[in-house]
Amino acid sequence: MIIVVDDRELVTSGYQSLFGQEGVSSAGFGVAEFRDWVETAPETDISAVEAFLLGDFPERSSFTRLVRNRSAAPMIALAETRALNSTLDLFAAGIDDVVAKPVHVKEILARVGAIRRRDAGSERGRTVVDEICVFSDGRDPEVGGKAMMLPRRERRILEYLISNRGRRVSKQQLFSAIYGVFDENVEENVIESHISKLRKKLKMRLGYDPVSSMRYLGYGIGV
């Protein structure tokens, strides 16, 4: 899930729509609203955030410490104009990347993937766990050495599990990451259906189920 912060509703709703077209869940906040949310949101909601996209507002530089107290997800700042001093100030404040508008959401997602790979030490453009390889550019994963076409939701679940390899994630975390924390039009149990279909396909390809599950603890790959 991508969190978009800007006091202009046109900006937040616009990016939410564009991320949605790419199959990525997102949520938009005004500045004051975001401050309240990030300080009080449950850990399950915070852990579902893949990146923070910060618009151009005066408090932006001071928000980095606020965010880092709760999350290690990449923070990307949107710049209305190219100005070296302001860009350097943002980096000094702890922003991970600065992009000038207009920018396509595919580029934003690619930059998020690059930051996450850098921090995790993953190979450029892909993450491999045993016989599963997922890509940061929207391509279908490779399973058992061959590409596997998956519906958008199942692919996103696999990517999320791989990005959290080595630890378990709950059904609620998966739901928040795939559908967003504020989507009330979808039942949380739909995640179980998506995971069940994904596990069957992985087992047919690999001969075993790489996704482990434990009651109350959640799902994981490589745990």
Brief synopsis:
Residues 1-116 form the Response regulatory domain. By secondary structure, this protein is of the alpha/beta class. Helices cover 44% and strands 18% of the residues.
Description:
The protein has 223 residues and is of the alpha/beta class. It has two domains: 2-119, Response regulator (Rossmann fold, 3-Layer(aba) Sandwich), CATH 3.40.50.2300; 123-221, Winged helix-like DNA-binding domain superfamily/Winged helix DNA-binding domain (Arc Repressor Mutant, subunit A), CATH 1.10.10.10. The chain has helices at 9-21, 31-40, 43-47, 63-68, 84-93, 105-120, 152-163, 171-179, 190-206; strands at 2-5, 26-29, 51-54, 75-79, 97-100, 126-129, 132-135, 142-143, 146-147, 211-214, 218-221. Strand 10 and strand 11 form a beta hairpin. The longest helix has 17 residues, at 190-206. The protein starts with a strand and ends with a strand. Keywords: DNA-binding, Transcription, Transcription regulation. Residues 124-223 form the OmpR/PhoB-type domain. Residues 1-116 form the Response regulatory domain.
Helix and strand arrangement:
Layout: E1 2-5, H1 9-21, E2 26-29, H2 31-40, H3 43-47, E3 51-54, H4 63-68, E4 75-79, H5 84-93, E5 97-100, H6 105-120, E6 126-129, E7 132-135, E8 142-143, E9 146-147, H7 152-163, H8 171-179, H9 190-206, E10 211-214, E11 218-221
Parallel strand pairs: 1-2, 1-3, 3-4, 4-5
Antiparallel strand pairs: 6-7, 7-8, 8-9, 10-11
Helix pairs in contact: 7-9
Organism: Plantimonas leprariae
Keywords: DNA-binding, Transcription, Transcription regulation
GO molecular function, one term: phosphorelay response regulator activity
